Amino acid sequence: MKAATERSLIIVIILAVISVVAIIAVSVWQSERLQDTADSIRHTNSVLFRTKDVVSAYVQYELSVKNFLVSGDSSLLPLSRQSSDLLYAQLDTLRELTKDNPLQQKRLDTLRRTVDDNRQVLDSSTALLLLGRRQDAGDLIASREGQDFVTRVQSLLGRLQSEENQLLAIRRIANQRVKSRLQEVFMGLIIVVGILIIVVVRKIRADIVRRKEDARRLSLFSQELERQVLSKTADLQASEEKYRTIFYKSPLPKWIYDQETLRFMEVNEAAILHYGYKEHEFLSMTIRDIRPPEDVNDLLDDIKDATRQNGETRHGVWRHLKKNGEPIVVEITAHSIFYNNRKARMVVVNDVTRQKRGEAIMKQLNEDLRKRASELAASNAELERFAYIASHDLQEPLRMVSSFLQLLKKKYKDRLDEKANQYIHFAVDGSERMKGLILDLLEYSRLGFSKENFGEVDLDHVVTEVKQMFAEKIKNAGAHIETRALPVVHADKIQMGQLFQNLISNALKYRGPEKPLIRLEAIEWPEHWLFKVSDNGIGIDPQFFEKIFVIFQRLHTRSEYSGTGIGLAICKKIVERHGGRIWVESEMEKGSTFFFTILK
Ligand code: ADP
After folding, report:
1. What is the 3-state secondary structure (H, E, C) of 538-554?
2. Whose CA is nearest to atom 16 of ligand 1?
3. Cα(505) to centroid(ligand 1), Å
4. Of the residues 93, 305, 431, 480, which has the maximum number of CB atoms within 10 A of its CB?
5. Ligand 1 center to 562 CA (angstroms)
6. What is the pLDDT of residues 298-352, one digit of tens each?
């Protein structure tokens, strides 16, 4: 931009100089031309003067000769000779002056011849007169009259003059033209130079303004630069200070060691505090000195490895020794850096001794827990086997007690009094209830843990079957069961049937004053399905939310609602067998929602 302006400025200055030179050249040339025409005019003027001189010289010569001829006074002769010489001298001058004009030369030649002729006549007359032959002289003169010399001379001179006058007029016009051309050229060049000067001045002014603006901007820029440099320097100092502080005041022990000599170069306060060495002690040691001797070889191998993988950040778990000999387990993070022109590594230490100890304890606890769980599972299985065998084996004696009681009632009814019959009735009822409980227990304990009956189960299908099973009950209660599309799951089909059967039957059984409205819904989660079975029944007191899932736990008497308290315990066992869990949310008199999950 700036270069372009300077270039155009230089071009304008060059043009201005060329114009000035051109003005000078043109004016010199024109003035020379002017000079030439002026010289021509002057020359024409002097030719005219000379012509007049010739005329007057001729007249004078003619007069002097005539005077002599009339008076015969010979003293007049020199005068006439003088006049004749003057005339010729004038004619010579005139010839010299008009030598550039052949036409005039020709006329002068004619004039000279005429003058010569005339002079010859006059000289002959003069000679005759001097010889005293006045008469002859007079005749000769008279014969000359016939030739009319004077008129011829005058007419020749007149033509000469008119030619010169014409030339004078032409030259004056030419002179005038040159003058006005010169003026025009001057005016034109003055205008051009004026314009150029204006352009140059404007350009220079603009340039000055721009330069001033540039200078102002430059000064602002340099001020800003200075400010930024100062602020960056301050930032740099602050950040250096910050990093020093971060290093020295870090709660984690840190140090920098020389990668070749393994000598400590810097240690922070936390390292001094944690390891118990003073700073100068640290700086006189190498990192080998804080390792148990048996770990030193591993350390050296690791350093070799680290040097090979130049620049990589390394992590590791090592054993260190404090100054008091206490061993600690540390997690190390080491970065390669350049420090004081040496290849070095900066190490951050995290003492994980307690954590590692905790981990070991946790590991032991987990191990114990796993052992306990498998023991528990074994004992559960044992218990279930026992419950199964017991309930199975109990059936037979119970059936005996029950049938003998029936027999007793039948055979001895009339022989026994009212009270004995009532006791027998209670005993029969009790044995019936016991039979029911034993059957429930048998069903519960039969729910094995094997997955051999697992397969793809369409729950929509399962629920439809349950609804058909309860069709009568649903109709009588005026119940409405709403089902949103249920998924296909990997499960035991019979147990899925039992699960929905128990939940739907409970929802129908524990109905409120309104017609039962039961909703079944499934929500998909990444790893499992969440099912909701909600009703508008009597609801459950939150304090019993856990208890209702325990076997034989009921919240009502048999006279209020039939049942043995096994249904939800079976549900819980089935759900857990499918890797899920079951829980309830409920509000008294508003209804309950049973949630359970099934693994995908
Ligand atoms: P049962 O129905 O034979 O008593 P369950 O194990 O099925 O045994 O239920 C345990 C108890 O939980 C029931 O006695 C009842 O008090 C309560 N319960 C179960 N389902 C519902 C329900 N949908 N609404 C209200 N209470 C319920």
Report:
1. CCCCHHHCCHHHCCCCC
2. 555
3. 9
4. 431
5. 10
6. 988 988 888 887 767 889 999 999 999 999 999 999 998 899 999 999 999 999 9
- β-strand partners of 350: 331
Q: By alpha-carbon position, which residue is closest to atom 8 of ligand 1?
A: 565
| pLDDT per position as a tens digit, 228-283 | 989 988 888 888 888 888 889 899 999 999 999 999 999 999 999 999 999 999 99
pTM of whole model > 0.70?
no
Locate the ligand 1 atom nearest the alpha carbon of residue 507 and give its number: 23
Strand partners, 263: 286
Chain centre distance of CA 108:
101
Kindly give the distance from the C-alpha atom of residue 363 to the centroid of ligand 1, in angstroms, as a whole number: 41
Asked if residue 510 lies in contact with residue 561, where contact means CB atoms within 8 angstroms, the answer is yes
Question: Which bin fits 276, alpha (ψ -120 to 50), beta or left (φ > 0)?
Answer: left
Instruction: For 75-86, give one letter per residue: b (16+ CB within 10 A) or e.
Output: ebeebbeebbeb
Q: Which residue is closest in CA terms to ligand 1's atom 21?
A: 506
- For 22, other C-beta atoms within 10 Å of its C-beta total 15
Ligand 1 centre and the CA of 509: distance in Å?
Answer: 8
600 touches 527 (CB < 8 A): yes
How far is it, in rounded angstroms, from Cα 39 to Cα 178? 13
